[in-house]
Amino acid sequence: QVQLVESGGGLVQAGGSLRLSCAASGRTFTDYDMGWFRQAPGKERQFVAAISWSGGSTFYADSVQGRFTISRDNAKDTVYLQMNSLKPEDTAVYYCNVSRPGAEYWGQGTQVTVSS
């Protein structure tokens, strides 16, 4: 059974940093793209960042470009999101996503709250 377990969320002041982790288990994910999405109260889930299966390509939403960095460790089937210069508008539940054509999995989410 596939499981994605996120960790690293919490409460931080504006300008601070957090590092999210998502550990995947239940199969090998070296051929899966991995990414992060977020959902703020009353809003739709939105894309944050993604990294290709090889780690050679990364993609970011305009709103986080230059502040967030996505990385992965295929030996651990883990994806990370380093979040710097956090803003109150980054407050949301952050979800890990792994995907390949024909298959997609989601984590349960981790809360990130940025106070002003």
Structure description:
This protein has 116 residues and is mainly β. The protein has strands at residues 3-7, 10-13, 18-25, 33-39, 46-51, 58-60, 68-73, 78-83, 92-100, 103-106, 110-115.
Topology:
Blueprint: E1 3-7, E2 10-13, E3 18-25, E4 33-39, E5 46-51, E6 58-60, E7 68-73, E8 78-83, E9 92-100, E10 103-106, E11 110-115
Parallel strand pairs: 2-11
Antiparallel strand pairs: 1-3, 3-8, 4-5, 4-9, 5-6, 7-8, 9-10, 9-11
Search tags:
mainly beta
Low-confidence stretches: none
Measured distance between first and last alpha carbons? 40 Å
Number of strands: 11
Rounded radius of gyration (Å): 13 Å
Broad shape: globular
Portion in beta strands? over 45%
Compact summary:
By secondary structure, the chain is an all-beta fold. 0% of the residues lie in helices and 55% in strands.
